[in-house]
């Protein structure tokens, strides 16, 4: 049935024209993502695996973004390179290769899920587990502290704060899930932290840092609330998300004028320049449509679209020459080894391979170079399948490890899930080796940190009880 549906979809794409071809191909790819998520739901006797869900949902966002661009007649030309490639001319290669990774992750999870038979633990319970409050307070603080931690004078302490804050990227989801609908001042603290972070991020030119945390907070609130509270949150989200996309596009255009950086850029003068540049963009002809298109296009990792089109012609497969050296360079800790980002780029590690396709990669500029782009540049679709298989095993192993901690430390296991969820989602943007490294290294290091926190503070905090 799936094969017949795929063949019919390809036939429909061939008969369509223009943006319609991309829309049909993207719709077919989105259907494959839905099929993967449905497969994970599986039998009711088995608990659903959550980390694979996060991975698949993250990989579905670019496909949906391409679908929106095509349906609304917005530009689908490949961004980030000087050539005039357009997804309209290669609808199948632009949309279907990125579905391989999520489908393989789902397949591996379905096969290995039998190993979890008899595991009735709930990874994200409806009520916040005992001891979670201190982690939520720390998450709100990290959202703000990460900015001064990026200043040169912050030193090793700043480096440590930035690493922990990066691992805690999904903490806003837990905050929204377990705090919205409760009578606790921690809700107000989180909302204030989200607003302050958003203002600083916009002034510094970091769109993702501005909008991703509140998006996660709202998503957690939707999944954690019930009844009238959930309906209110859904209405709020329906109004907020299009606004986020629009403002993200405007912020991207303003950033092109003002540049980007960190906390050092935040000043009264910068705020004035930002407001002035925003007004100038809004007064331009067709500004709202262009800004919305820019916001949607920002959701697409264009390397995953361009590389299947450009490989093996005009760019040949790069194969696995020097792959062992890449493993060593990827898994070393830069702060310990002294290896800089410039050294890794010169060694051709990670995203450096994107330069062969015309993407700009240097010390100050980077691009998404996920396992689809990485695998296809090495050997085509078969390597992408192989990378998907390995990522599926890694993600499944991380979830099994987390589930084993639930009885001993429910709050720590919940935080560890948020850490691993962040890196499961990051598989959309990180090269294969970097993605595996992130999941393994951060899971182990944050687990050790949680053990230390529990040894110092214990788990005496009361549960977060949901009201409404």
Question: What are the salient characteristics of this protein?
Answer:
mainly alpha; 468 residues; single chain; 67% helix
Rg value: 22 Å
Per the principal axes of the C-alpha atoms, what is the gross shape? globular
Instruction: Give the ordered list of helices and strands.
Output: HHHHHHHHHHHHHHHHHHHHH
What is the number of beta strands?
Answer: 0
What's the average pLDDT?
83
Q: How large is the count of helical segments?
A: 21
The chain-level structural class is mainly alpha
Enumerate the spans where pLDDT stays under 50 for 5 or more consecutive residues. Answer: 1-5, 11-15
The largest sheet, given as strand count, sense and whether it forms a barrel, is:
none
Percent of residues in β-strands: under 5%
Amino- and carboxy-terminal Cα gap: 44 Å
Helix content: 55-70%
């Amino acid at each position: 049935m799936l094969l017949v549906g795929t063949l019919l979809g390809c036939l429909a794409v061939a008969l369509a024209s223009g943006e319609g071809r991309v829309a049909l191909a993207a719709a077919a790819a989105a259907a494959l993502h839905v099929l993967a998520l449905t497969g994970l739901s599986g039998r009711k006797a088995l608990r659903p695996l959550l980390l694979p869900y996060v991975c698949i949902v993250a990989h579905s966002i670019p496909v949906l973004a391409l679908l929106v661009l095509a349906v609304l007649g917005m530009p689908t030309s490949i961004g980030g390179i000087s050539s005039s490639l357009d997804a309209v001319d290669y609808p199948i290669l632009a949309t279907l290769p990125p579905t391989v990774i999520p489908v393989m992750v789902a397949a591996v999870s379905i096969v290995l899920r039998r190993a979890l038979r008899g595991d009735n633990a709930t990874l994200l319970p409806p009520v916040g587990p005992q001891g979670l409050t201190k982690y939520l307070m720390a998450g709100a603080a990290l959202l703000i502290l990460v900015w001064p931690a990026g200043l040169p004078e912050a030193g090793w302490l700043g480096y440590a704060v930035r690493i922990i804050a990066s691992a805690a990227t999904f903490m806003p989801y837990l905050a929204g899930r377990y705090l919205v609908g409760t009578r606790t001042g921690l809700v107000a603290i989180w909302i204030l932290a989200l607003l302050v972070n958003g203002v600083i991020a916009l002034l510094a030119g970091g769109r993702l840092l501005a909008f991703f945390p509140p998006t996660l907070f709202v998503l957690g609130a939707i999944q954690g609330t019930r009844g009238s509270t959930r309906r209110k949150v859904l209405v709020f989200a329906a109004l907020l998300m299009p606004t986020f996309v629009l403002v993200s596009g405007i912020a991207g255009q303003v950033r092109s004028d003002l540049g980007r950086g960190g906390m050092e850029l935040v000043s009264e003068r910068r705020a004035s320049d930002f407001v002035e540049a925003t007004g100038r963009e809004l007064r331009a002809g067709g500004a709202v449509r262009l800004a919305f298109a820019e916001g949607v296009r920002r959701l697409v990792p264009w390397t995953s679209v361009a590389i299947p089109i450009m490989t093996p012609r005009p760019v040949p497969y790069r194969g696995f020459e020097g792959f062992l050296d890449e493993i060593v360079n990827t898994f070393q800790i830069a702060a310990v080894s002294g290896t800089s980002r410039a050294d890794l780029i010169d060694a051709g590690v990670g995203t450096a391979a994107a330069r062969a396709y015309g993407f700009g990669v240097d010390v100050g500029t980077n691009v998404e170079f996920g396992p689809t782009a990485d695998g296809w540049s090495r050997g085509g679709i078969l390597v992408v399948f192989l990378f998907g298989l390995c990522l599926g095993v890694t993600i499944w192993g991380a979830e099994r490890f987390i589930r084993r901690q639930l009885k001993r430390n429910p709050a720590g296991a919940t935080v560890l899930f948020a850490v691993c969820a962040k890196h499961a989602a990051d598989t959309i943007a990180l090269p294969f080796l970097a993605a595996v490294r992130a999941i393994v290294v951060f899971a182990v290091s944050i687990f050790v940190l949680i053990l230390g926190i529990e040894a110092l503070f214990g788990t005496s905090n009361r549960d977060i009880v949901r009201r409404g």
